Amino acid sequence: MTSLLSIALIVPYASESGGFFDDTLLGALCSVARGAGHRAELAHVYYQSQCGETVGNTAAHVEDWLISMAAHLVVIERLFDPTPLVSFRSRRPTSRVLLVSRGDPFDDLAGVDFVLGVPGRVCGSGTRRTPTTADIVTGFSALLDSLAHGEETATAPELYRVADNSLVSTSRQSRRSSLSTELNQLSLNPELGQVDIIDSCTAPKMVRKTLLGNSGCPYARDALASPEMHGVTLPDDVPVSRLGCTFCFMGGDYQKRPRDIVVSELVEQALWITTHAPTVTELVLADQHPLPYLAKGIQRAHSAGIRPIRWLFSTRGDTFLRQRRLVGEAIEAAKCAGHQIEVHLIGFEAFCERELARYNKGVTVHDLLCVVEAVRTLATMHPGTFHYAQARAHSLILWNPWTSPEDLSESVAAIRHHGLAELFSDLGSNRVRLYPDVPLTYAAARDGALTQEWESEVPSRGYAPGKPWKFLDGRTRFAFSLSRQLKERLGRETEVAQLAATCDLAVRLATRGADFVGTERSVMCELDTLAATLAELDSERGADAPPRGCDLLATPVVFTGACNNGCAHCSNGDAWLPDDTPALRARVQTAQGLRSAILFAGREPSLHPAFLELIAQASNNGNNLVGTVTNGRRFAYERFARAAARHLVGVSVKLHGTRPSITDKIVKVDGAHDQSVAGARALAASGVVVEVRAPLLRHNLHVFADYLDVARACGARQIRIEASLDGIRLDALGHATNAVIALAKRCASEGFPVEASPLVTACNRFDRLPIASGQRNAWAESGPNCNGKLGLRNP
After folding, report:
1. Where are any strands of DSSP class E within 582-664?
2. Strand runs (DSSP E) across 546-679, as ranges?
3. Which residue did the predictor score with more confidence, 152 or 778?
4. What is the rounded CA–CA span in Å between residue 542 and residue 529?
5. How far is it, in rounded angstroms, from Cα 71 to Cα 97?
6. Fewer CB within 10 A of the end CB, N or C, for the chain?
7. What element of type H or E holds 756?
8. Are 129 and 121 in contact (CB under 8 A)?
9. Are β-strands 48-50 and 53-55 bridged in parallel, bridged antiparallel, or unpaired?
């Protein structure tokens, strides 16, 4: 006798964001269950966290939901927290739990009865087979049929029973069907927009869905042939991905199917999703090698009537370079269809040759930089059609057991020099995950890096954490801990500078005998003191404080191109932007639309060949107030200064020292100091309001109070203090605080205005235009934002 089942499918999320973990696979299985007449419901569970720790009562809410459904079968794709499953099973012993995996590793089987999607071994190749979606759909159908008959005798490919936390294989004699056969029997994803939400009041709108393509990855370089893997022995009883990247479980087994079948399946899925989920704007191709069919897929999608949408695809960097022709064809197909494409995931991993060798990436740092140049060029050539950095899902793994501070410094230096921060949503958090089916795990075992528990908290939710491991270099352990604390205090916007400062300190520490804990505590204490000191100058002040400066809230137009200084601490190019004239014109136009003052900033705006044209455009015949942040050197040329002064009302001049011997050493240009002072004086003589930017740098801290003399020599009306962590060095933060206090006291005694940028903005506070009080009052009365939204502030 057949019974109808109640099936609860759970999709866990680490946070209330769109992310790339969606419910496509479980949605397909939900439709399988409903198609067989069973009751099936899908829930999105949002785990709340504070400071890396899970908070709230989510587990109890999940258990309550399962009880309310009287679930016979609970289906999960990722096991964040087994607590509600174990508790639910104790209250309902006849219920069963199924863990579904597209080959992703898993660490804990607590409360789980079946696992579907367990990888096997590819005969004769010594690598691991990734389950196909067809295997999963077929196995799920077989399991439902078995449970509906009151039995647990299902036999299907990739289906295992769990016994004593181990996997027991079922028979593998069932047929292996094609995905198209299975999906043609389904109404795919009928539950779209009808999911239960647990522990979220602000669940994100569904804008991104995954399309299920081919399984596995075609990259098949033998990891054991790498010198980094010398002496590593792989186990015989565990399928290990010997081929491909040493940390990845998909290499060497790309299960390529006929192109027409894959395209038909993807178009069918895309048509269903775009029809039934109108809020979806992005479709992610879950396929490691989609370029051969991408153009054809977009053309077919257009012919099928799929509305314009963004197609996100992943690829290896070297593959992207080799197959530029196919990329071009996909771009043209998207342009003709009114669609967009984005290469959203390239596995960069590191910009250090030693780290790339450990990962068996098969590419060099030069290769990766060529990839970046290629995608930037295509985005410039095909604006609005080709993208590469909007999703910012590219992979970077800065931390592994062997990482040294020198390795980390090499990657950070490349990221800074080439503006690579635009590619990554989270630069410094990702530690490598060591799973039983990847070779790097056994290299860690060889070198004694595996441990019983993590030295710090488990990596962020979303992936199984893998086997715990430790850093083999104590300086790196220190750098990892300190960098996380800095990011928690200062946010992600200045993370490159934070990492650079951390690397600098870690490299200078002794490998043995250093007091890492005491040093870390001292750095964070001095950091908090410096932050508080700057914050006091950026808030209401007492009578003994220096007077406030005068400025307007402004919209920055950022340049990332050339600079005639060579400051090592410069963060203005950390994230790249197109610096061609059309792109800058567009940024100016956008700023004008915001109807506020406009501030040109970033690298050195005055060097751009269209600078005078752009400030004239921004000024719009004097209808907008325009200024710039500059090193001032080009304004030392009188004709250029006079031409610029016709359109500028305020200029913030960056002076890195209080005397030539200091400034010229920092910027690495002889005569730079005198030229900057001359430029500032020329602007002031032309009626432009001049502010001197005084960055806290280790070379100028001992004479920082002399900035008052420099400001007067420049004809400046105020000083703005700002802090560069890597320019100061983390073990000199206390000296920086004393320097700020010394300058503030001197300016207070002589009545000279001072402003200070908060520590979280580092040297990138580009939303304040220095201005005369009379100009500001006139702007407040007759400017475009005279209703007070401009954020004017009294001096």
Report:
1. 597-602, 626-630, 650-654
2. 551-559, 597-602, 626-630, 650-654
3. 152
4. 19
5. 10
6. N
7. strand 754-756
8. yes
9. antiparallel
- The answer to whether 646 and 601 have CB atoms below 8 angstroms apart is no
CA distance 450 to 469: 4
C-alpha separations of 479 from 364, 486, 496, 505, 547 in Å: 25, 10, 13, 8, 39
**Euclidean distance between the first and the last CA atom of the chain, given in angstroms as a whole number:** 84
Please tell me if the domain spanning 6-198 has the same topology as the one spanning 542-782. no
pLDDT tens, residue by residue, 211-228: 989 988 999 999 999 999
- Give CA–CA dist 243/128, Å, rounded: 8
Q: Where are the domains of the chain?
A: 6-198, 208-451, 542-782
Q: What pLDDT digit, counting tens, does each position of 263-272 carry?
A: 999 999 999 8
What number of other Cβ atoms are within 10 A of residue 425's Cβ? 14
How far is 670 from 649, CA to CA, in rounded Å?
A: 29
CB 288 within 8 A of CB 251: no
Query: Which residue intervals of 394-462 are DSSP H helices?
Result: 405-417, 439-446
8 Å CB contact between 654 and 695: yes
pLDDT value for 325: 97
Mean pLDDT of the chain: 89
Q: Which of 631, 711, 624, 626 is nearest to 664 (CA)?
A: 631
Contacts for 269 with CB less than 8 Å, ≥ 6 apart: 24, 183, 188, 189, 211, 212
Q: How many residues does the chain have?
A: 795
The structure tokens listed for 26 are 């479980």
How far CA 601 is from CA of 174, 502, 596, 654, in Å, comes to 65, 26, 15, 11
Average pLDDT over residues 375-396: 95
Find the helix packing angle between 660-667 and 672-685, rounded to 10°.
110
State pLDDT tens for residues 333-360. Answer: 999 999 999 999 999 999 999 999 999 9
Furthest CA-CA distance within the chain? 96
Assess whether pLDDT exceeds 50 at residue 554.
yes
Q: Provide the sign of the torsion angle of the four alpha carbons 79, 84, 87, 89, taken in this order.
A: negative
State both tokens at 790: 């401009």
Q: Which CATH number applies to 542-782?
A: 3.20.20.70
φ, ψ (nearest 5 deg) of residue 250:
-110, -5
Rounded CA separation 290/269 (Å): 16
Lookup: tokens for 408: 């980390």
Burial class (CB in 10 A: 0-12, 13-18, 19+), 559: buried
Q: Which two tokens stand for residue 138?
A: 């077929």
CA dihedral 487, 488, 492, 497 (to 10 degrees): -20
Q: What SS3 class is residue 129?
A: strand
- The residues, any chain, with a CB within 8 Å of residue 29's CB and separated by 6 or more, are 9, 75, 100, 136, 137, 140
Amino acid 709 reads: D
- Written out in words, the top-level CATH class of the domain with range 6-198 is alpha beta
Residues 6+ apart with CB under 8 A from 330: 291, 294, 295, 298, 341
Structure tokens at 251: 């290499």
Of all residues in the chain, what percent carry a pLDDT higher than 90?
67
Whether 38 and 144 have beta carbons less than 8 Å apart is answered as yes
Strand partners, 343: 313
